[in-house]
């Protein structure tokens, strides 16, 4: 029987679709029935996905219920579990922040008095943050709607996730300290990593995901340029590696240049190439990039 590698993915919420899409881009297409999104197998039959709550994934991976998983780094740190953080994934970016009501004076974290009430759904990380600074807080654990607690008179500060800051602002709260920078992360169980078969598959998954992420920020650029401009073109396209230069059939005065370039540079590069009399400029997405 084929060994099966088990991965835990968020069953709903903001990390769910990006995680499934990332796996699809990495070549693992899941057979998912939207109504009963509990489990899925890949076409190859050797990768099983279990869909669970984002907050449960660190524990499931640490306990070996799953060999690996995708969740938020904030959830991993809050669970306080020992798992390998294989690769950060560039989506689900947010900050866990300490915020105060707008009207409250702020003289820095060192000036916070013992006994202040801090409401959060991240009690572990929050307690640790204040303990490291020698401040004894009165922790108010909540499971949601943290922002309302100062207005209800049950907390002096809140610790919550912030991405745009608009929810905080709408609740007349002002973030003052970053406790943790978070984003989605691919984590793995340490014993699974040590297993010959599973370890190899998890490593492979790690670098395939990495190659998809690398590719996302880059484009493949092709252009025909006058041979006499080659030195100038080389200056423009240092790129990831030296550009590939190819002769063109029956056109001695021109050469084809191919290069991997950062997506953000494409606009400027196309303009610069045109000014060097480049022709037939073609820019395409890249599916995978293994350096
Ligand atoms: P959800 O399942 O939608 O509650 O997703 C929660 C996870 O999404 C968090 O643990 C974070 O890793 C991530 N996230 C990114 N931005 C935010 C945000 N503004 N608020 C809450 N969670 C966020």
Amount of beta strand: 25-35%
Count of alpha and pi helical runs: 9
- Main β-sheet, spatial strand arrangement: 2-3-1-4-11-5
Parts with pLDDT < 50 across at least 5 consecutive residues:
none
Fraction of residues in helices? 25-40%
Form type:
globular
Distance between the termini: 34 Å
- Strand elements, count: 15
Whole-number radius of gyration? 25 Å
Q: Give the structural class.
A: alpha/beta
Task: Characterize the largest beta sheet: strand count, sense, and whether it forms a barrel.
Answer: 6 strands, mixed
Sketch the topology as an H/E string, one letter per element. EHEEHEHEEEHEEHEEHHEHEEHE
Q: What do the pLDDT scores average to?
A: 93
Q: What are the distinct ligands in this entry?
A: adenosine monophosphate
Can you characterise this structure?
This protein is α/β, with parallel strands linked by helices and 291 residues long. Helices cover 28% and strands 31% of the residues. It has 9 helices and 15 strands. The strands form 3 sheets. The protein has a 6-stranded mixed β-sheet, with helices on both faces. It has a 5-stranded mixed β-sheet with strand order 8-7-9-6-10. The chain is globular. The model has no long low-confidence stretch (mean pLDDT 93). Bound molecules: adenosine monophosphate.
Q: Main attributes?
A:
about 290 residues, alpha/beta, 6-stranded mixed sheet, 5-stranded mixed sheet, 15 strands, binds adenosine monophosphate
Brief characterization of the structure:
It is built from nine helices and 15 strands. The protein is α/β, with parallel strands linked by helices and 291 residues long.
